[in-house]
Amino acid sequence: MLEWISVQKNYGTQEALRGVDLALGPGEIVGLFGENGAGKTTLLKCALGLVRHGGEVRLDGERITGRNVGRLSFATVEHSFFPTLSARAHAAFYEEQFGAFDYARYHALVDFFRLPEGKSARSLSTGQKNQLEVTLALCQGADYILMDEPFAGNDVFNREDFYKLLLGLLTPRETVLLATHLIEEVQDFVGRAVLLREGRVIADLENEAWEETGLLQTVKSAYGYRGDRVQRALEDAFGGEE
Description:
It contains 8 helices and 10 strands.
């Protein structure tokens, strides 16, 4: 189990996370949703030890250190690969670093994305860079795969097919935590939705909660979204004139 226990993070005077408690078990596919600045990326980075924070993050009851951090992988839109290395060179490096690196899955994903294995990462398109990032995270052999907007720059057809492929690839021990704004696209992929707002978890829902209304409407209701906000903004801009 991966647990965030009363996790807090400030950037100067700005509170990014305010006492977050969250637990993920084996085999879950969880969507992490929230407005820009809600704390999604910071929450993921806290688990990996990429930012200092208050509270604790534990993996099967133990603190995350260099000894067990390999059980976590991270696909980030900020990219974590080496710009000068090719996909093929990355695979060789990952195999040296992570004994559970899955070459069969690597080749399947490279073929699926049609990634040029011999080109340096920095010479790839934006979409291909994100595909390389996702491929490496999924092939590392981690138990918990954390993804931060991994599909940015990829067309809708690639994304739709990838969700289906991922469902077929994942094993019962693997857990995915996916931070994304593409709520409608992933509603049939995730089995649980965690909603962040201003650094706090405001809802933690199982998929039964959105079977009737859909995930997007469920999220809007949780946030108290008002459909007339655009009209009200226009009225304010024009001083109430018709």
